[in-house]
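TL;DR need structure tokens for one chain.
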Amino acid sequence: MALARARLRQAERASEPGPRDRAFGRAEATVVAAERYHPGLSTLAVEHAHLESRWGEATLEPEARRRHFERAVGLFRRGLELEPQASVAHRGLGAALLELGETEAARGALAESVRLAPRSVEARLLRARAELAAGEIGPARAEVAAAVAVDAGRARRILVGLARGRPNDASAYRDLALLDLVEGHPERARAALQQAMSVATPEEVGMLLRLLELAGASG
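>> reply
TL;DR here they are.
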């Protein structure tokens, strides 16, 4: 497991697609070898699923990206067959489903993750993301508020890091804007939403305009 994680970190540091994919491949081979020796260990299935998700996040080609997230979904589900109460697996499953645009399934997985680990900031923020994807601002805002109540500093670090790491992802700025609204910083929220608007797809604009209205109403 430690070797696979070290190789995953090496893959994430690679700047070129070729070396990056080879490094991800080596990390995957390590996990697959471990799974042969321990086929019933849920931890390995979940580790493999996380690796596929990270590989998908690092992949620019749409079809290859989709294949990685589809594999991740299958692996998370296999892990959950072995250990149904694993909150981190439900969370990873929800995140992968969101990447595939399967919003309702993602909402279910993330609701279960929050139920099992109500103090998980990551699970709360991901559930908020799923609610926004479904057009539900109220429930999303409640999840962000719950994350802030657990650890406001961690919640902000996660969302700021997401926005920095995904400069062309409107939803990353959107999520940060919602955090700003929850914490009473409408001017920051408007700035984040303007950034989101500059990279948004037509399908994303409606939600951003709704959040801009909230930011305006808040001051």
